[in-house]
Each structure stands twice: as structure tokens, then as C-alpha cells.
Specification:
The protein contains ten helices and twelve strands. By secondary structure, the chain is α/β, with parallel strands linked by helices. It has two domains: about 200 residues, NAD(P)-binding Rossmann-like Domain (Rossmann fold, 3-Layer(aba) Sandwich), CATH 3.40.50.720; about 90 residues, UDP-galactose 4-epimerase, domain 1 (Alpha-Beta Complex), CATH 3.90.25.10. Helix 2 packs across helix 3 and helix 5 crosses helix 9. The longest helix is centred in the N-terminal third of the chain and has 20 residues. The protein is globular. The model has no long low-confidence stretch (mean pLDDT about 95). Bound molecules: nicotinamide-adenine-dinucleotide.
Length: about 325
């Protein structure tokens, strides 16, 4: 089986490319990535010479090139996106272009090439925030920032291609992911790397928004299960119940790194900040997935990884 992974040089994509290359030596994995500032081939240095791995530089908005590349591809796992939410408050047009239009182009090229399976990787942010309870896959989408709106727009196009053309697509909506190779712009790597440099850590607003985290190892296993056992046309929430406010997360990181709270620097909040995300996990659990890495264990491992991999993150700051 030949699988095209879009956005495979990014944070989650590179973790999943490595997972597939190592666990499925019979699959041919083709990483298709434009290499924006968030895409980094250094993430895949350890596997770049594996016989079942290949990299192609390309944009998901490039229809002709994709049609050419997809000629002998069996399946697609679509991660490519502008994903750094903070940037979407500045120039959000590129978010709509890569995330919504890019997904449309990819689907059209996939349709023309009779791709057998497509996993569209979306986010729990498409639901908007929820003060109590958890969103099920059937709940309506109410995105609140330009990033999540562009991901929700992409989902609408995916849905229409499934309904209209019956293209074989499955969607996932994941909660916040953390682990190795996360660009030091997101809260965990930013705070950890700042503290390793003995710098203050900028906490948005009062730190009250609540987020839920899943470690890359658990996410990769969930994506594997969705790819192999998921039902075409269905959507699967992927995540954990490890909810934590940004302030409590900050304090936890400080404690684990032996620093006191004087390192916290309260900065302006986002223009709009969802208060809480939460997703119901019964559907992914019913496919046979379960969390194996607790938040505490994952956070300790992640801090250790950033300690041991300064040469990876220092050029990115
Ligand atoms: P990332 O920003 O680290 O990686 C995105 C990758 O896509 C980069 O390698 C980038 O070069 C590439 N890319 C961007 N635009 C492209 C284009 N037009 N053509 C080809 N490649 C392009 O993002 P990530 O955190 O790894 O997220 C991957 C996917 O998972 C995204 O679709 C994101 O919406 C989704 N997601 C992320 C999280 C999270 O917590 N990080 C949570 C839920 C869902």
C-alpha cells in the first residue's frame, strides 16, 4: 500500500510518518509537504534513509502536481494545514487558503485518481467551546477563531465530497496534542524551552482557559486504528479526559522544572479565547483504542525530550 501523508514534516505529521514507517515496513510512505516555517525535515532525520520513506516538496493547493503525484497512491492521510492559532489572528487568509481551499484541491485530485481511503485530520476546536459536558461527533460546529473556522470549512467540503461523490473519507477531531517535535510556539514547548533558557514564560490573560491534552504516542495509535478499522463516512473524536487550565499547566511545568512562579509573565489574552474544549470519546474507544500515556508521564517525557534536543529547537526560536 502506498500512503501519501500531507503535512508530514510538521509536528503531528512527522510523529505519525515515523510511526508508520517503523511499524508498517510493507507500506510505502510518501511525505508531501510545502515546508512552511512549521515544516521541518530535521524532524525525520532518523528515518530519512528508510527504504519505505520518501519526501516530496509540494503544496496541497497545487492541483496539477497533486494529480500527477496521486497516480499510484492508494490512501491519503491529510495533516497539512496552517495550525498555529495565534498567527490566525494576524494574517488569517493563508489559513483559509491552505486549510479550506487546500483540502478542496486535495479532494478533487483524490477523486480524479480514485484514492481508496482518505483520513482528514481535523480538530476539536471546530465545535467551539463548551462550559460543561463534552461534544459528540454529531454536535454542530461553531468555530470561534479564524483557524478553527478554516478547519470547519474544510470539514464541510469533505462532507460534501462524501455525500456527492462518495469519496471514501473518514474524519478525526483531535484535542490538543503534545510531545516531541512540537514547534516552540505552542504553550508546552514554548514554556519548557523558555525555562531551559532561564527566560520568563508568557501566559495569556489570567490563564483560566481549559484545554485537554493527548500525547503523540496515544494519538498515533488512535490514527492507526481509525485508518485500519474506522468506518468510511464517519467522524471520530480523538483525545483524553486530561483537562487542565493554562494556569495549572504552567504551575505544573514550573514544578517539574524546579522553577518558582516568578517566571510567569501575564500577557494580553488572545482577541478571542475559547474557555474550554471537551470531546466525548466513546466512539474511538469502541474501535478498541485506549489512552496509555498519562498526562503526567507524557509531560515528564516531553520536558526530557526538549532538554535532550536543544539543537533541534534552538534554531526555531
Ligand atoms: P504543524 O503546523 O506542526 O504542521 C503542519 C504541516 O503542514 C507543516 O509541515 C507545514 O509545512 C505543512 N503545510 C502547511 N501548509 C501546507 C500546504 N499548503 N501544502 C503542503 N503542506 C503544508 O501542525 P500540527 O500541529 O502537526 O497539526 C497537523 C494537523 O493536525 C493539522 O491539520 C491540525 O489542524 C490538526 N490538529 C492539530 C492539533 C494540535 O494540537 N497540534 C490538534 C488537533 C488537530
Amino acid at each position: 500500500m502506498k500512503i501519501l501523508i500531507t503535512g508530514g514534516a510538521g509536528f503531528i505529521g512527522s510523529n505519525f510518518v515515523r510511526y508508520l514507517v517503523k511499524n508498517y515496513p510493507k507500506y510505502e510512505i510518501i511525505n508531501y509537504d510545502k515546508l512552511t516555517y512549521a515544516g521541518n525535515l530535521e524532524n525525520l532525520k532518523d528515518i530519512e534513509n528508510y527504504p519505505n520513506y520518501k519526501f516530496i516538496r509540494g503544496d496541497v493547493c497545487n492541483f496539477e502536481f497533486l494529480c500527477y503525484i496521486l497516480k499510484d497512491i492508494d490512501a491519503i492521510i491529510h495533516f497539512a494545514a496552517e495550525s498555529h492559532v495565534d498567527n490566525s489572528y494576524g494574517n488569517s487568509l493563508i489559513f483559509t487558503k491552505s486549510n479550506a481551499y487546500g483540502t478542496h484541491v486535495l479532494l478533487e485530485a483524490a477523486r480524479k485518481n480514485n484514492i481508496k481511503k482518505i483520513i482528514h485530520v481535523s480538530t476539536d476546536e471546530v465545535y467551539g467551546d463548551i462550559l460543561e459536558g463534552s461534544f459528540k461527533e454529531t454536535d454542530k460546529l461553531e468555530p470561534n477563531n479564524p483557524y478553527s473556522a478554516s478547519k470547519a470549512a474544510a470539514e464541510m467540503i469533505v462532507r460534501s465530497y462524501y455525500q456527492t461523490y462518495k469519496i471514501p473519507v473518514i474524519m478525526t477531531r483531535g484535542n490538543n496534542v503534545f510531545g516531541p517535535f512540537q514547534y516552540p510556539e505552542k504553550i508546552i514547548p514554548r514554556f519548557v524551552t523558555n525555562l531551559l533558557e532561564n527566560k520568563k514564560i508568557p501566559l495569556h490573560g489570567d490563564g483560566s482557559p481549559i484545554r485537554t491534552y493527548i500525547h503523540t504516542e496515544d494519538l498515533c495509535r488512535a490514527l492507526d486504528i481509525v485508518f485500519h478499522k474506522g468506518v468510511i463516512g464517519e467522524t471520530y473524536n480523538i483525545g483524553t479526559q486530561d483537562e487542565i487550565s493554562n494556569l495549572d499547566l504552567t504551575k505544573k511545568i514550573l514544578r517539574k522544572m524546579g522553577k518558582d512562579e516568578s517566571y510567569i509573565e501575564f500577557v494580553h489574552d488572545r482577541l478571542f479565547n475559547d474557555k474550554r474544549y471537551s470531546i466525548d470519546l466513546s466512539k474511538i474507544i469502541s474501535l478498541g483504542w485506549k489512552q496509555e500515556c498519562s498526562f503526567d508521564e507524557g509531560l515528564t517525557k516531553t520536558i526530557e525530550w526538549y532538554k535532550d534536543n536543544k539543537t533541534w529547537w534552538e534554531p526555531l526560536k
